[in-house]
Amino acid sequence: MFRIVWAIIIVMIVISLSLLPFTGRELEEKRDWITASELLFEEGVHLYKTGLYHSALTKLDSSILIQPFYSPAYYYQGLIYTESGNPDSALTSFKRALTLDPESYLVRIEMAKLLLDKKDKREAKRLLIEANRINPYRGEASKLLNNLKLNELKLKESK
Q1: Nearest partner of 82 among 50, 55, 47, 117, judged by Cα
Q2: Does residue 73 belong to any structural domain of this protein?
């Protein structure tokens, strides 16, 4: 118990010391950057949902410039590239999103779909198995895996 209390005290001191270099104004500016990034992200998502992909991509790119470690921005960037017919850029964006959020179910699903289109069944299958492990209650990974297995069986039977 005593160690836990000391650990909490040390963590609080470290957090306090990390904030010392910032003045109140600098903290407000930092908060404004995050708010600006969130606004740009939300605008980008809205534009994506309305089909204005170029404008959406511009907003998301600006959001990423301000806050480069926000994985949903890369996820939506990947969706836009997918819809725009640019699968290589989409895969790059999805890989970045997955690096930032290694437990992302949705990113794995979208990457697997792209890889299936590119005929990279091995990597797609790996991603779908991981997605199913992360969330076995969502049916999309299981459905895609079953379709992949059926196609493999049909291919074997036709030979």
Answers
A1: 117
A2: yes
